């Protein structure tokens, strides 16, 4: 025990530190925080997924970077963290969706799949010789006519959201969602809000070839991935709005400065008049 304590409590996944922490899980969460931004939003017309693919080189083919994965016709996931770990979980999720169809003759529910993946991730927090998955997933879809979104954590924790974000800039995006999200958003409004969430998280570094968008419509419960032309339309709409907001803010600032300057000049003129009266 003495030898292990000198080595540090982060050398093995299955050992708690004296203050009750599992450091390997915290390290896995840091891997997620360093990942690109992914968002999921529920609207009254369906579920929206949007991710920032963060193209690091002009030599990369943007379509080769995949962050949104179709699990079944009615379920998809968006990931942030170690993409290789995500692919492993996606393969397991797709297999489980097919097993559920064969065993129960019905599609797997969003809640059922989210709990299954959460349990699997939790298993990798209490076994020797393994490490936690360095990935968080937004699992969403349509089950029994209802839209649902869940977020998983490397610890296996599971939380249901109306709108959420994972990865880089998560806090900024969640603050935006808390201010602007409404239960009666249309699909177009939800897509616009999702792109704005990525815009905020990346400090305005948004381009149509760096964003991936997919939706699952409530009416037919079918997954659909947007093509480049559709994404460009939504991204350009957001950029135009942000540019106009900046112009309006600049004009407002100039107007306030001019008003303040005029007020100061009027005050100085009044003081001069008072001094002339006193001299007389």
Please tell me about this protein's structure:
- By secondary structure, this protein is an alpha+beta fold.
- The protein is built from seven helices and ten strands.
- It has helices at 2-7, 23-33, 83-104, 110-123, 170-180, 187-201, 228-279; strands at residues 38-43, 46-52, 68-72, 75-81, 135-143, 146-152, 158-161, 163-166, 211-217, 222-225.
- Strands 8-1-2-9-10 form a five-stranded antiparallel beta sheet. Strands 3-4-5-6-7 form a five-stranded antiparallel beta sheet.
- β9 (211-217) and β10 form a beta hairpin.
- α5 runs antiparallel to α6 and α6 crosses α7.
- The longest helix has 52 residues, at 228-279.
Q: Specify Rg, calculated over alpha carbons.
A: 25 Å
First-to-last CA distance: 95 Å
Number of helices: 7
Question: Which segments are poorly predicted (pLDDT under 50) over 5 or more consecutive residues?
Answer: 1-6
How is the largest sheet built, in terms of strand order? 8-1-2-9-10
Strand-residue proportion: 15-25%
How much helicity do the residues have? 40-55%
In short:
It contains 7 helices and 10 strands. By secondary structure, the protein is an alpha+beta fold.
């Amino acid at each position: 025990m003495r030898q292990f304590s000198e080595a540090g409590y982060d050398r093995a996944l299955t050992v708690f530190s004296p203050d009750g922490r599992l450091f390997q899980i915290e390290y896995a969460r840091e891997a997620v925080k360093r990942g690109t931004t992914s968002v999921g939003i529920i609207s009254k017309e369906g579920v929206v997924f949007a991710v920032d693919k963060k193209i690091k080189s002009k030599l990369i083919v943007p379509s080769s970077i995949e962050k949104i994965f179709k699990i079944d016709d009615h379920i998809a996931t968006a990931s942030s963290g170690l993409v290789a770990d995500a692919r492993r979980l996606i393969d397991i999720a797709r297999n489980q969706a097919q097993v559920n169809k064969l065993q129960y003759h019905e599609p797997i529910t969003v809640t059922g799949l989210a709990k299954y993946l959460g349990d699997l991730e939790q298993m990798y927090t209490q076994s020797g010789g393994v490490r936690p998955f360095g990935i968080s997933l937004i699992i969403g879809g349509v089950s029994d006519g209802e839209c649902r979104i869940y977020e998983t954590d490397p610890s296996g924790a599971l939380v249901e959201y109306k709108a959420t974000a994972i990865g880089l800039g998560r806090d900024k995006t969640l603050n935006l969602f808390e201010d602007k999200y409404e239960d009666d958003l249309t699909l177009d409004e939800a897509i616009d809000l999702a792109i704005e969430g990525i815009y905020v998280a990346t400090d305005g570094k948004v381009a149509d070839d760096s964003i991936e968008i997919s939706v699952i419509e409530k009416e037919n419960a079918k997954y659909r991935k947007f093509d480049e032309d559709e994404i460009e339309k939504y991204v350009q709409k957001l950029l135009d709005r942000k540019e106009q907001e900046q112009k309006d803010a600049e004009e407002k600032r100039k107007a306030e400065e001019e008003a303040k300057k005029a007020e100061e000049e009027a005050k100085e003129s009044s003081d001069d008049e008072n001094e002339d009266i006193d001299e007389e």
